[in-house]
Amino acid sequence: MKHINIFLIGLLMLGFSSCKDFLDVEPSNSGDAGVAIKTPADAQIMINGLMRGMTSSDYYGRNFMMYGDAKGGDFTIFSRGRGLDGLYMFDHSPSTGSNSGFWSQIYTNILQANNLLESITKQEATGLTGFNSAKGQALTARALMYFDLVRLYGKSYDDDKSSLGVPNITTVLNASAQPLR
Predict the structure, then answer these.
(1) What would the DSSP string read from start to end of 114-173?
(2) DSSP state of 24
(3) pLDDT value of position 155
(4) Lowest mean pLDDT, pick from 1-5, 29-33, 117-121
(5) Is residue 120 one of the residues assigned to a domain?
(6) In this structure, is residue 4 part of a structural domain?
(7) pLDDT tens-digit readout, 152-179
(8) For residues 84 and 62, what is the distance between their CA atoms, to the nearest angstrom?
(9) Residues of the domain holding 88
(10) CA-derived radius of gyration, the chain
(11) Separation between Cα atoms, residue 81 and residue 99, nearest integer Å
(12) Number of domains in the chain
């Protein structure tokens, strides 16, 4: 019994004296939205998170790459209800969620880019420099995402030269923002 008590006391002492910072590691691919970017290195962490979001399975990670081939008839999808058959069958109704991930994932990434650009603008207003690379990457990524949205959801320019594309959101929207109608 004495050995068990000594072992338990030793284990408790070891547990309380362990390294406190060992598990508190800052992520390298995301940042806290509530904390403003202070340095170009912080901006690069946000860029890493933005690029990670662009490689999700609903965007460049998988489905977006198959979308054009499925619509063009280059291959047949026999998914038997696993989510990709709507692409091949041109089934774009509200009841099928086979392609809703494109819209939501791309606009989530655009929100990240807008947050990053707003934070960079605030830092540049205080006189800090060195954000050109991160700002250029965020602007380029946002332009690519809008280009992809227009390719997927925009009407053909040849049919009607005044046809609408997709909502162009270039600022951070607060919770009280209303949808454009």
Answers:
(1) HHHHHHHHHHHHTT----HHHHHHHHHHHHHHHHHHHHHHSPPTTT-TT--------S--
(2) -
(3) 78
(4) 29-33
(5) yes
(6) no
(7) 887 777 777 777 788 888 888 776 776 6
(8) 11
(9) 38-153
(10) 24
(11) 13
(12) 1
Enter the tokens of residue 155: 């009407």
Does residue 171 lie in a domain region?
A: no
Three-state helix/strand/coil letters over 157-170: CCCCCCCCCCCCCC
Cβ contact 142:110 at 8 Å: yes
Please report whether residue 85 resides in a domain.
Answer: yes
DSSP code at position 76: -
Number of H helices, E strands in the chain: 6, 0
Question: What's the distance, CA 18 to chain centroid?
Answer: 36
Alpha carbon distance 138, 51 (integer Å): 9
Phi, psi angle pair for 155, to nearest 5°: -80, 155
What CATH number does the domain containing 130 carry? Answer: 1.25.40.390
